[in-house]
Amino acid sequence: MPDAHGPSAGHVVTVIGLAGIPELDETDDLALLIHEAAIRVGGLQPADVVVVAQKAVSKVEGRVVRLADVEPSARAWELAGADGDPAHVEVILGESREVVRSRPPLVISETRHGFVCASAGVDASNTEEGTLVLLPLDPDASARRLRERLVELSGVEVGVIVSDSFGRAWRQGTTDVALGVAGITPLRDLRGELDAGGRELRATQIAVADELAGATELVMGKARQVPAAIVRGVDVRGEGSAHELVMPRERDLFR
Amino acid sequence: MPDAHGPSAGHVVTVIGLAGIPELDETDDLALLIHEAAIRVGGLQPADVVVVAQKAVSKVEGRVVRLADVEPSARAWELAGADGDPAHVEVILGESREVVRSRPPLVISETRHGFVCASAGVDASNTEEGTLVLLPLDPDASARRLRERLVELSGVEVGVIVSDSFGRAWRQGTTDVALGVAGITPLRDLRGELDAGGRELRATQIAVADELAGATELVMGKARQVPAAIVRGVDVRGEGSAHELVMPRERDLFR
Questions:
Q1: Per the CB < 8 Å rule, is B10 touching A223?
Q2: Quick check: B195 and A9 CB within 8 A?
Q3: Among A29, B24, B48, B251, which is least packed, fewest CB within 10 Å?
C-alpha cells in the first residue's frame, strides 16, 4: 500500500458517510443517488471504495416480500416456536440451503449464496410494515452493476462493496461484512511476504473487504438514513468475488 | 453520534496509522512511544480511540516464551500431527481453557480470557526466532494501563483498544477485533431505538469495538511496523470491558 506521507507521518484512511439519500424503492437509480451524494462531499477519487448497505440494494432490486402472501410450512411453525412468526421463518427457509443451527425463534442458516448468517439475511427493520427485505439474488452482480454505473457517471474507477450486518460465532454484536464486491480484491494474501524479522508470515489472509465494510458501519449506522459510504486510502483495486470470503465447506470446522 | 457537518455533508471518520515505533521489548514505555508518534501526526484529540496491536502490548509485558523451554505433553504431540510443532501446541494448550475444534496442526480453543480463536492467540510471526508471543494475561487491564499513561502524557481523555487478528467461523481471512478496552463502550445497543419507519430495531447490538479494531488493521498491516493507530470521529466514550464482546456460554450455539 503506498504511503504518500512517509513512514513517520502514518498512513491515513478516511471513511465518509453519504447522507441525504431518501427512502428507496424499485423506481430509484441508486448509483445516481450515490454519485450525487458523493459530489456533495467533494466527489469520488481513484481507488475509492464505495460501500453500499445491502438493504438499499435489495430495495431497489425489489427483493421485498409481503408476509401476508406467505403460507408457513410445518417446519416453519416448528422453528418459529412460541415467540416467532411462522411466516417470517418460512421466508427465511425459502432463502436457505440448509439450517445450520436453530433455537426458536432464532435460525442460523446457509443462504443460497453460501453465507452462514442469522435469518438468512432476511430483515424486518427499516422496511414497510408487513414486509421483509431479502438479500440480493447475486450480491457480486449487484456490486458490478452499481460499479459500472458509478464509473459511467463519475468517470472514476472506484471499487464497490455491498455490505450487511452479520453476527459471529462466539462473539456478541454484529459487524458489517462484504456480501458482494466489484473491482476489488476482498482478501489480502500475505503468504510469501516476510515479517519485520525476515521470516515468512503465517496468519496469511486478511479479509480486507470485511474490514472495509465494518469501518463504514461506523458512519452508516442503522437508524440514520446513510445507506452508503466512501473509504479512501486503502488501495484494494483488483478483480474478485465475495465468494472468496466464504470458507469452503471442506475446510469448515463449524458446520 | 453528533455530526458537525450536517446531514447532507456526511459523517467522517479518520484512521491514522502511528508509524516510526521501533521493535519493542520489556524495556519500552509503549504509551510514551505512542504519544510521541501521535504528536508527529498532530496529537491526540478528545474522543479519539487509540488501537494498539496485541503483539506490541504482549512484548512490552514480557508475554514471550522460548520453545526450547517447553516440554510437550502427549496431547500436544497428538494435536500437532505430522506437520505441527508439539512444543508450539503445548504452549497453545497452556493458554487454553478448552479445545473447541482441532484438525492437526490447527487448534481452535477458548483462551483463559474466554475468547474462542485459533492457537489461543499464540503467534510465531514478527517475534524472535525460537520464541512465541502469548496474549496479555488481562487485555482490559493492559488497555487501562495504556490509557492512564496516555491521558497523563497527553492530557486528553482518549479511549484505548488492544486488538488482534482473529479468524471467523464460515468466513475466510482474519479481521482485527478488540481483546481489551478502556474508556469506551464496546457494544452499541440499539434496543429501544427506532428505525426510519418508527419501528423498534431488532438486530440490536453492534460490536463497534471490533469494527474500530478492523478499521485500524487497514493502516497497521502485519509487516509494516505500525503497531498502533488513532480512530477519530466515532464517539464511543464510556466504561466497558472486552468481556462484553464474548458470547455468554449459555447463548453460544457453536461450542
A1: no
A2: no
A3: B251
User: ipTM score of the complex?
Assistant: 0.94
Domains of chain A: 14-63+136-238 (3.30.1330.100), 64-132 (3.90.1660.10)
Interface contact B172-A205, CB threshold 8 A: yes
Q: Tell which of A3, A106, A206, A232 to mutate to test the B interface (max B CBs under 10 Å).
A: A206
Q: Is the Cβ pair B197, A234 closer than 8 Å? A: no
Pair type for strands A159-168 and A49-53? parallel
Per-residue pLDDT 10s for chain B (255 aa) are 444 444 445 699 999 999 999 889 999 999 999 999 999 999 999 999 999 999 999 999 999 999 999 999 999 999 999 989 999 999 999 999 999 999 998 999 999 999 999 999 999 888 888 999 999 999 999 999 999 999 999 999 999 999 999 999 999 999 999 999 999 999 998 876 666 556 555 558 999 999 999 999 999 976 678 999 999 999 999 999 999 999 998 888 887
Nearest-Cα distance to chain A for B73, in Å, is 24
Output the nine-digit C-alpha cell for B111: 483462551
Of B9, B173, B196, the CB nearest to A23: B196
Total-model pTM: 0.94
At B202, list the grid cell: 431488532
Q: Any idea of the CA torsion for A99, A53, B193, B3, to the nearest 10 degrees?
A: 150
Distances A86 to A68, A92, A106, A107 between C-alpha atoms, Å: 11, 10, 12, 12
Closest CA to A251 of B134, B69, B101: B101
Which residue of A202, A212, A225 is in closest CB contact with B125?
A202
> Exposed, middle or buried, B68 (CB in 10 Å: 0-12/13-18/19+)?
exposed
B16 alpha carbon, distance to own chain's centre: 17
Inter-chain residue contact A15 with B13, CB threshold 8 Å: yes
Q: Measured between CA atoms, how close is A89 to chain B, in angstroms? A: 15
